Amino acid sequence: MNTSSRWHSPPAIRVSRALLSAVAVLVNACGGGGGAPFAETNSASAGTAALANIQIPSYVASIYHLNTQVLDVLPQLRISARLAGDVGAIQGNFIQIVAEDKDGIVKSAEIVTTPGSSTVGIYITFAADILPPKRYTGPLRISACLDPACTQRLSGTPFNVPYDITVLRTIQVDFGSASSSPTIAGSANVPNEKIFPIFLPEGTVTYAHAIFEFFSAPGPLPLASVSLADPRQLSMQFPSLPAGEYAGVVDIRASGFSPMGRSMDRTEKYSITYIVR
Prior knowledge:
Number of strands: 18
CATH topology of the largest domain: Immunoglobulin-like
Number of helices: 0
Largest sheet: 5 strands, mixed
């Protein structure tokens, strides 16, 4: 098992004759990169208890990359199954879910049961918004175990779920530094225009604009605009100001269609410091 991104919560599902009330458990989520996707651990079958009738979907989704704004959340992956076999053999034990993937995209999971029913649901939450933009594909291997080390697995596990997740770039302005709160220099007592390269969201952008929401200097707000023509640029026009340091927030918005043809509407805010000398 890869252990470069592994965590787990205290187990929260205990098997009982009533097959539990609805509860959830955070998984051991294992990720990493390089080498073989998964390493086998020595494990034994947990008696004859099993997960059966596992409905294994394929997971295809896209998300725009996280910059300065909290934006997309990938939908949960839901897997349905049935607790079968000699459930009495594991009575009193906790069931834990171990999820492994080579890309480190799994954030958490929960396993849910319904009172009086053998049906269980496994819900996987992804953390792709923190990953660099690119396409991530592979199998997600899921095991149901009686211990965190997964030395006792329920029959029917592990099983693989294919995933195909694309992390897309969103609005990014090249201010000449990696800061999301850039400093811009200007000359005193004359209007100043500043132009910066801008990257708009991947896909087809049909509309883009920028506007100053706040500027600490008195008088009208500076003007800001986005050019859709190549080379794409963000233009800022500052009024004539005396020497000093001014703060402002510029809001950039772009809309259109993602590479998957879905409607896309992205916004990004930059807090700037305008220094006039």
